[in-house]
Design brief:
The complex is a heterotrimer. In chain A, the strands form four sheets. Chain A has a seven-stranded mixed beta sheet, with helices on both faces. Chain A has a six-stranded antiparallel beta sheet with strand order 2-1-3-9-4-7, with no helix packed on it. By secondary structure, chain A is an alpha+beta fold. Chain B is mostly helical. Chain B has two domains: 1-39, no CATH class; 41-187, no CATH class. In chain B, the strands form two sheets. A three-stranded antiparallel beta sheet of chain B has the order 3-5-4. In chain B, α5 (131-145) runs antiparallel to α6. The longest helix of chain B is centred in the N-terminal third of the chain and has 32 residues, at 2-33. Chain B is extended, with a radius of gyration of 22 Å. In chain C, a hairpin with a 5-residue loop joins β1 and β2 (215-218). A two-stranded antiparallel sheet of chain C has the order 1-2. In chain C, strands 3-4 form a two-stranded antiparallel sheet. Helix content of chain C is 66%, strand content 2%. In chain C, α7 (170-195) crosses α8 (223-232). By secondary structure, chain C is mainly alpha-helical. The chains are: A alpha+beta, B mainly alpha, C mainly alpha. The interface between A and C is large, with 75 and 68 residues.
Chain lengths: 684, 188, 564
């Protein structure tokens, strides 16, 4: 995503939007927005009345067509403003999509044939399961898993992040995205998607808003707005008989003007723009939400489950000390520890090697090429290596190692527990180290809480969101970190099933749960959670399971997404309230004007002292049109969300948008009345 | 069908219970405990029922207190008000007619006439009048009957009912009670 | 306005509120399934009734089964009453020889009473036999109140259900409200009423020679038994044409106060019951305060307007004083105003003053109360309307605080909003559209009594009253024409059943939702600020919907009366 596309309004976008706001007047498109559709119908009727003022009967003065013409023009402008708001919101997405699409059409791929040779094909021909080869400085043609090789990839086209990332076969860093660029080495990739389903395709669809569906709350609001429109339609249609009874009549253009003023055009015009702009804000945070529903759900989240490692803490627990137990010396321990980590590619493992090196212990991998690497698994919670001669090296969670030692008939030294507790109490992670059945001691891994985390959790608490930290650490360690970071709760010694169980438990209580994850074993939990934010660096399975993908792979982004979700609702609520509150002033402008000749008593309601009936009606109508572009920036930016109690937030917004919504039009209509009187329009 | 049949059974049983048993039970207890009220508070004068204490009746002599104006000519079997709206010219006309029919002493200030004296009651059968209304009628009745104004005035005072507990209703006097009392006095 | 009158109004409201709390608790215990001390008295009676009616008291219903039973039994009762009215001329207990009703009036009357409206296009003393008053009117005054009440109870059950579709058994609720609430209360009140002067007799009209030597026919009948349930059931249909203005229906200030208390008792108590169901007394308190506030403000607007009288009369005739046209001496302006406010707030529709003769503002308030239809509201359905407005208020407020709106822990989604909007929409629709039709047709305009703007008010009031199932009237309008009998009948039916069905459908979907636990981010509905938002939604939606019609009716008349 080109950085320049992130600017909010460029000349191109505005020009495109103006054009689009006219093409969107097609009734087949307009009918999707019942409120604005009513305005458009009103426009057509007044247009007819401009040329044939007596088409609905009645007697009209010679200048009646001028009034009708002005009403027609204002209605036209109202519709255009509404469409313009939507088009502007879509415009930015369109520009981004254009850039992305360009990337996509240029792609070619070297596809493997059955005989093992490669053929050049267009990337769009690639199917799931195809094997492609990518050489250095070529674009990766398709989303896939790396089968062979290791290379650095520039993913800035997708993430905007210029630092290259390492992608390689096996493990959690094997997934690559089409449209990114391989900078070095060579990769053999197996395509994991069919044409049209790639990440790039999804992103294009998303930013363009093509696959935009109304979110649940938006749908509910649309229903309410349509209902209000119906009510006002009834109100206005039944006015003519009232006037008729007292031997008067109200002309159709005035009735239409009143109707348009009363129906919630402001929110009707801005509703879809608010939604599009909200999604766009999510994208600008470099988060790809697979649906608007997910963003809205984020606003409702009650419980946030975060992994400790990499999210709350810096992630790389680093070895800082070797603590021997029993009769063992530190040198022995260092040697065993380094051996157990020899093939360990995790940051912890590497930090052990590094610390060992500093203490003078260096081992070469090549000398143990016949050894078997034992990878860490969540079940055994140990890793290490088995030598061909039967010697086993293990390091891992203390209780797991204890069990391991016990099963092999080894001895547990009495000072082990005490030393383990000390490390845990200090917030560190103890790893026990064992060679065959002999326990040598502990590696002290230090965990550092990221700066600013505590403040963020405080903020979440104010929003009413509980944070739960998930960690494989023992309860003591977990408690120390939890305290330091300020989370509400934690699960220690967590296995993937625990995360799943926690989500289900919370959901059974009726809560909405959000979590972030990257590993394949997170996938079920990501799918189960109401909001699952997968890291872009994570596995394809994780990305598939979550309903959002964070391109920056920053799990704390969930907090921003929550804010945006809330902001989306607040903006809709605020503008709806504003829109309805506006009606009060419009009544005071139009009702006395409308009945001026029939029920002169009602002149007492002209509390704004508007010049005359025509100026009053036009002022209200013009105000109604102008308020739309005035509010476009608010719709695009969103009402600012501040974490505070729901009641204070409600009062604040009611005061600004409800009370303000009552007052503003009184001022606005009066000012417009003065202007059009000065222009002489009132006395046409 | 079961539901329909059940609905019919419910309707019949409830109709008997609520539409017959209940009112007849009230009828029984009411007549045992309060026979006078249950029959409509009928007042006897010289052995004949002359009306209900609670129902205003037309008075066409100037020797008795007149009840409030009635839009239904005091039809005991056809209650109702004038239903004239506040800005209806017919209302002004009606009040003007009522005022003219008052037959108060010449020289009585219009502003001393209470609105309840010239405006029709809601039921057309309002049995009570305000004290001001009664007092304005005293001179006329004195003139016709020969009873002294002070006797009549004290009669009004005696039968005046104040507000219930001092807060509910208005001070007033029952016309039937007053007129029966006048009749009694006249008999002497 | 007098000090005594003001204190009288306030004292009555205080008594109502004090009584509503124990009453509400009692209702909760009866309908929440708790066992009560009185069980050993009521159980045998109820079991006997269940057997007689073939009811299996232990079965549970979902919303569809519940409302099917409700609608069916209402239909049967409607037909039953229709037949009684049509045949009364040939049935017993007709000492005054009253004829059978014509079909259109019988339809209107049966609909009016089954819907708890009690709109009367007839004069009771001239058009109904004693049998009709008992077996038609009194009977339906019980059952229509019971129907509205159980609807509210079922909705409350749905609201507190956690993922369960069962909302009780209609028949059991329907019988229990009679045996444990309505019948005992009505019996006590009716006997008190007889003691205070309401007749209860099967003897025909008394023909008397008056003191002036004229003949007077005085209608009477089984009045007290009808009057008690008329008020307790927020029905309002009087025995006589003048309704509670008739001295036989409401002979003193004391009976008037008792009647006001009786009509207010259960609608106000239901707020307490509601608070107990949702286990949130504060919520009930907030509703009490705001609803009572509106009731008081409205009542005092009526009172001050009536007490300051009619300037046109003063101007033309030089007579000054409160507006007493269409009022009874024993009530005076204060109790008349309170009764007017209460009867429209509690959707009773009984009147002790002729609303058509109220001053413009005095007539505006009752119309507004019926248009809002939530100032406590009628038996049961008032609470349903309150809940509907709460849901809309919660929806808007929920958006404003950035959360999917939830009410008492249940999410408000598109389906709920759809149903609430339907319930919201139907009210203005059935008020404004028929009013418009009536005003442009000869059939609609010729029965209007008062000329000019007040004529609009008469028609608007009629359809507002029918739509709100209130029953009070600007009685100058002669509604006994085929046009009005049918139009008003249809409006009453729609006004009653469409919103009940919509709210039941909502109950069905709410019942099955799980209850979300409260957090800091949850918008609390039991705060003063939310109470204010709720009220603002009611007033603004109500005002925006009806302002144009009201401005051509009472508002314009107000300016006309004062400015000329």
């Amino acid at each position: 995503m080109a950085i320049s596309a992130k600017k909010s309004m460029t000349g191109d976008i505005v020009r495109g939007a103006i054009l689009a706001s006219l093409t969107k007047m097609d009734p087949r498109i307009m009918i999707k927005n019942p409120v604005m559709f009513v305005v458009e119908i009103g426009f057509v009727i007044t247009l007819v009345l401009t040329f044939f003022p007596d088409v609905f009967g009645g007697k009209y003065g010679p200048n009646e067509w001028i009034f009708n013409l002005i009403v027609t023009v204002v209605l036209f402008i109202t519709v255009v403003f509404g469409n313009f708001a939507e088009a502007i919101a879509e415009g930015r997405g369109k520009a981004q999509a254009e850039a992305l699409r360009k990337t996509k059409t240029d792609l070619t791929a070297q596809r493997s044939k059955t005989d093992g040779t490669y053929e050049i094909v267009a990337a769009s021909m690639l199917k799931k399961g195809d094997i492609v080869r990518v050489e250095a400085l070529q674009m990766i043609p398709v989303d896939g898993e790396v089968l062979q090789g290791l290379g650095s990839v520039d993913e800035s086209a997708i993430t905007g992040e210029s630092a290259p990332v390492i992608r390689g076969a096996g493990g959690d860093f094997s997934s690559v995205t089409g449209g990114t660029k391989l900078l070095s080495d060579e990769l053999i990739i197996k395509a994991t998607v069919d044409p049209g389903e790639s990440f790039l395709d999804k992103m294009i669809g998303l930013v363009e808003g093509a696959s935009r569906q109304k979110t649940p709350n938006e749908l509910a609001l649309s229903v309410l707005l349509a209902g209000l429109t119906m009510i006002f339609l009834i109100v206005v249609i039944t006015l003519e008989p009232l006037a008729h009874y007292v031997n008067g009549s109200i002309d159709v253009a005035t009735l239409i003007a009143l109707l348009v003023c009363l129906i919630p055009t402001t929110i009707g015009a801005l509703l879809s723009a608010i939604g599009i702009a909200g999604m766009d804000r999510v994208i600008r945070f470099n988060v790809i939400a697979k649906s608007g529903k997910a963003v809205e759900a984020a606003g409702d989240v009650n419980t946030l489950i975060l992994d400790k490692t990499g999210t709350i803490t810096i992630g790389n627990r680093l070895a800082s000390e070797f603590v021997p137990v029993g009769k063992h010396q530190r040198e022995e321990l260092v040697e065993v520890a380094v051996m157990s980590s020899l093939f360990d590619e995790t940051p912890e493992g590497r930090s052990i090697i590094t610390l060992g090196k500093e203490l003078g212990v260096t081992k070469e991998r090549e000398s143990y090429h016949d050894a078997e690497n034992i990878e860490f698994s969540a079940d055994t919670r140990m890793s290490g290596m088995d030598l061909a001669d039967g010697t086993v090296y293990r390091k891992g969670a203390v209780d797991a190692i204890k069990k391991f030692v016990n099963s092999r008939g080894g001895q547990i030294y009495p000072d082990l527990d005490e030393k383990t507790d000390r490390i845990a109490r200090e917030g560190g992670t103890p790893l026990a180290v064992v060679k065959s059945s002999e326990l040598f001691g502990l590696i002290y891994l230090k965990d550092i809480v990221k700066p600013g985390m505590r403040e963020r959790f405080d903020e979440l608490r104010k929003m009413g969101i509980k944070t739960v930290m998930c960690t494989g650490d023992n309860p003591l360690t977990a408690a120390t970190i939890a305290l330091e970071a300020g989370v509400d709760n934690f699960i220690a010694e967590a296995k993937p099933e625990d995360k799943m169980r926690l989500i289900k438990e919370e959901q059974a209580l009726g809560k909405l749960v959000a979590m972030s994850g990257d590993g394949t074993n997170d996938a079920p939990a990501l799918a189960q959670a109401d909001v699952g934010l997968a890291m872009n660096t994570g596995t394809a399975a994780a990305k598939e399971a979550g309903n959002m993908v964070d391109l920056d792979s920053d799990p704390t982004k969930l907090i921003e997404v929550v804010s945006i979700g809330k902001q989306l609702l607040i903006t809709r609520g605020a503008i709806t309230t504003f829109s309805i509150a506006n009606d009060v002033a419009k009544y005071f402008a139009i009702i006395p004007a409308m009945f001026a000749s029939v029920v002169p008593e009602l002149r007492a309601l002209n509390i704004m002292f508007l010049t005359n009936s025509k100026s009053a009606i036009l002022s209200a109508l013009i105000f109604n049109a102008l308020i739309i572009p005035f509010l476009i920036p608010l719709a695009m930016r969103g009402v600012k969300y501040r974490p505070m109690s729901a009641t204070s937030l409600l009062m604040r917004n009611i005061f600004i948008y409800g009370f303000g919504g009552v007052i503003t039009p009184f001022v606005g209509i009066k000012v417009i009345d003065i202007i059009i009187t000065w222009l002489g329009v009132a006395h046409l | 069908m079961t539901n329909l049949w059940r609905s019919i059974r419910v309707t019949l049983v409830m109709a008997v219970l609520l539409g017959l048993v209940y009112p007849l039970f009230i009828l029984l207890i009411g007549n045992l405990a309060f026979p006078f009220q249950a029959a409509g508070s009928m007042i006897k004068f010289q052995g004949h029922v002359v009306g209900s204490e609670l129902i205003a009746q037309q008075v066409n002599t100037s020797g008795l207190f007149h009840p409030r104006p009635s839009a239904v000519q005091y039809a005991g079997n056809g209650s109702g008000g004038s239903n004239l709206g506040p800005t209806n010219p017919a209302l002004i006309q009606e009040i003007r007619n009522n005022e003219r029919a008052l037959n108060v002493l010449p020289g009585t200030k219009l502003s001393s006439i209470p609105t309840d004296m010239v405006e029709s009651s809601a039921s057309g059968l309002d049995p009570d009048i305000s004290i001001a209304d009664a007092m304005l009628q005293v001179p006329r009745i004195a003139q016709t009957t020969g009873l002294s104004q002070s006797v009549l005035g004290s009669l009004v005072r005696r039968y005046e009912t104040g507000r219930f507990l001092g807060i509910w209703g208005e001070p007033m006097v029952n016309v039937m009670t007053l007129n029966v009392a006048i009749k009694e006095l006249m008999k002497k | 306005m007098t000090l005594a009158g003001t204190i009288g109004i306030l004292a009555t409201i205080v008594i109502i509120l004090l009584l509503s709390i124990p009453m509400g608790k009692y209702l909760y215990h009866v309908f929440s399934g708790d066992s009560t001390r009185m069980d050993h008295v009521f159980h045998p009676v109820e079991n006997g009734l269940y057997r007689l009616m073939g009811i299996n008291a232990s079965s549970q219903m979902d919303w569809k089964a519940y409302i099917k039973s409700m609608l069916l039994v209402n239909l049967v009762m409607l037909l039953f009453a229709y037949l009684i009215f049509r045949l009364q001329g040939s049935l017993p207990l007709n000492p005054d020889g009253i004829k059978s009703m014509p079909w259109d009036l019988a339809f209107n009357t049966a609909v009016s009473f089954i819907t708890n409206t009690n709109w009367q296009n007839y004069a009771g003393e001239q058009s109904l036999s004693y049998l009709s008053q008992m077996l038609g009117i009194t009977f339906l005054q019980f059952t229509s109140a019971a129907t509205g009440f159980v609807a509210a109870i079922a909705f409350l059950r749905a609201l507190v259900n956690n993922k369960s579709r069962w909302i009780g058994n209609f028949w059991v609720d329907f019988i229990k409200i009679h045996t444990r609430v309505l019948l005992p209360l009505a019996t006590i009140l009716a006997i008190v009423f007889v003691g205070l002067g309401l007749p209860e007799t099967l003897a025909g009209a008394a023909k008397v020679h008056t003191l002036s030597g004229l003949l007077q026919t005085i209608s009477r009948g089984p009045v007290a038994s009808l009057e008690a349930i008329k008020q307790l059931g927020t029905n309002g249909g009087g025995f006589f044409n003048a309704n509670s203005a008739h001295p036989f229906e409401d002979p003193s200030a004391l009976t008037s106060v008792l009647e006001i208390i009786a009509m207010a008792l259960i609608p106000t108590a239901l707020i307490t019951t509601f608070g107990m169901f949702i286990k949130n007394r504060r919520q009930a308190l907030i509703l009490y305060v705001f609803l009572t506030g509106v009731l008081l403000v409205g009542t005092f607007v009526i009172y001050s307007s009536e007490a300051s009288g009619n300037p046109m009369v003063s101007h033309a005739l030089g007579i000054y004083g409160p507006n007493m046209e269409g009022k009874e001496m024993r009530f005076g302006p204060a109790l008349s105003s309170l009764f007017t406010g209460a009867t429209t707030a509690f959707t009773t529709g009984a009147v002790n003053t002729m609303h058509d003769s109220l001053t413009p503002l005095g007539g505006l308030i009752p119309m507004l109360f019926m248009m809002f239809n939530v100032i406590f509201g009628g038996k049961g359905v008032g609470l349903l309307n309150i809940l509907m407005y709460l849901i809309i208020a919660v929806f808007l407020s929920g958006l404003m605080v950035g959360r999917t709106p939830e009410i008492f822990g249940k999410k408000i989604e598109a389906r709920e909003i759809k149903l609430a909007t339907l319930a919201l929409l139907v009210h203005p629709f059935i008020i404004l559209v028929p009013t418009a039709i009536a005003l442009i047709t000869k059939a609609g305009t010729s029965p209007i009594l008062n000329p000019g703007l007040h004529g609009i008010s008469e028609v608007l009031y009629a359809f507002t009253s029918a739509a709100a199932n209130n029953g009070s009237a600007f009685a100058g309008l002669n509604g006994n024409t085929i046009f009005y009998n049918l139009m008003l009948g249809v409006v009453m039916l729609i006004g009653r059943y469409v919103s009940i069905i919509a709210m039941f459908a909502m109950a069905g979907s709410l019942a099955q939702k799980s209850i979300i636990p409260e957090s800091v981010g949850t918008l609390r509905t039991d705060t003063w600020s939310f109470g204010g938002v709720f009220l603002a939604v009611v007033v603004i939606v109500g005002a925006l919907t009806f302002f144009p019609a009201l401005s051509v009716g009472p508002i314009a008349e107000y300016f006309h009366m004062w400015i000329g």
